[in-house]
């Protein structure tokens, strides 16, 4: 029976790969990978010989129609990203939506994603939160910050290392120097680190010690007091 499987992959530590994910990747007809070179190492490690095709942000608009036809013809396909759960700030949404619209079964396996451990690690309220992903680079960035000034829920951002200090400085500017911030980097990897404090304190830390690796920033919401 045709089905699209959304399969999370480790965000760093290969031991976070689930038995079920390995089983699915071995049994499907095709694996769609964000970067076949990166995923090739993962598949080799777990002795998965399934054929791969490239599926990334630059070609997904062009490939969705053909993939839907293959699924409608009875194939089973697994979608993976370089790390974590596909479609969370990664390719995957367009194909998933197309499958839903065409009545094709979609099954997302549970597994690794970076923002959940970062949120829990932060010690900030997690009963209500908003995932913002990557902020706009230029156009719309200030507008987004102005809108988030009134956000009372905990906010989660993905930030590249070379933009971290700029972003932290913007948190100070728009949210205030005392707003609580938690920066988690290299989650599940050897040099995993979480730095907590006020926006100003965390900015000073990373100005003195520039960050490297994958980064998730968690910011406390506006106080309702």
From TrEMBL:
Check the record and name the Pfam families matching this protein.
TP_methylase
What is the recorded function of this protein according to its Swiss-Prot or TrEMBL entry? Catalyzes the 2'-O-methylation of the ribose of cytidine 1402 (C1402) in 16S rRNA.
Coiled-coil region list: none
- What name has this protein been given in UniProt? Ribosomal RNA small subunit methyltransferase I
Gene Ontology biological-process entries:
methylation
Q: Which EC number(s) does the record attach to this protein? A: 2.1.1.198
- One function term, GO molecular function aspect: methyltransferase activity
**Catalytic activity field:** cytidine(1402) in 16S rRNA + S-adenosyl-L-methionine = 2'-O-methylcytidine(1402) in 16S rRNA + S-adenosyl-L-homocysteine + H(+)
The uppermost taxa in this organism's lineage are:
Bacteria, Pseudomonadati, Bacteroidota, Flavobacteriia, Flavobacteriales
PANTHER family given in the database record: RIBOSOMAL RNA SMALL SUBUNIT METHYLTRANSFERASE I (PTHR46111)
Which ranges carry the Tetrapyrrole methylase domain?
3-202
Family label:
Belongs to the methyltransferase superfamily. RsmI family.
* InterPro entries registered for this protein in UniProt: 4pyrrol_Mease, 4pyrrol_Methylase_sf, 4pyrrole_Mease_sub1, 4pyrrole_Mease_sub2, rRNA_ssu_MeTfrase_I, SAM_MeTrfase_RsmI_CS
């Amino acid at each position: 029976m045709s089905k699209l499987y959304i399969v999370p992959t480790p965000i760093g530590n290969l031991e976070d790969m689930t038995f079920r994910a390995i089983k699915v990747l071995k049994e499907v007809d095709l694996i769609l990978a964000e970067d076949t070179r990166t995923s090739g190492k993962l598949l080799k490690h777990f002795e998965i010989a399934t054929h791969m095709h490239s599926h990334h942000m630059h070609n997904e608009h062009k490939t969705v129609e053909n993939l839907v036809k293959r699924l409608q013809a009875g194939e089973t396909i697994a979608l993976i990203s370089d790390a974590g759960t596909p479609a969370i700030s990664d390719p995957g949404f367009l194909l998933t939506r197309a499958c839903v619209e065409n009545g094709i079964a979609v099954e997302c396996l549970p597994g690794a994603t970076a923002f959940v451990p970062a949120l829990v690690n932060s010690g900030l309220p997690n009963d209500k939160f908003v995932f913002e992903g990557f902020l706009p680079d230029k156009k719309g960035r200030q507008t987004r910050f102005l809108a988030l000034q009134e956000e009372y829920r905990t906010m989660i951002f993905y930030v590249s290392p070379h933009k971290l200090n700029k972003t932290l400085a913007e948190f100070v500017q728009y949210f205030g120097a005392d707003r609580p911030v938690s920066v988690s980097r290299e989650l599940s990897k050897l040099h995993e680190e979480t730095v907590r404090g006020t926006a100003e304190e965390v900015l000073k830390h990373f100005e003195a010690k520039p960050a490297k690796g994958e980064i998730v920033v968690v910011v406390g919401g506006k106080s309702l007091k």
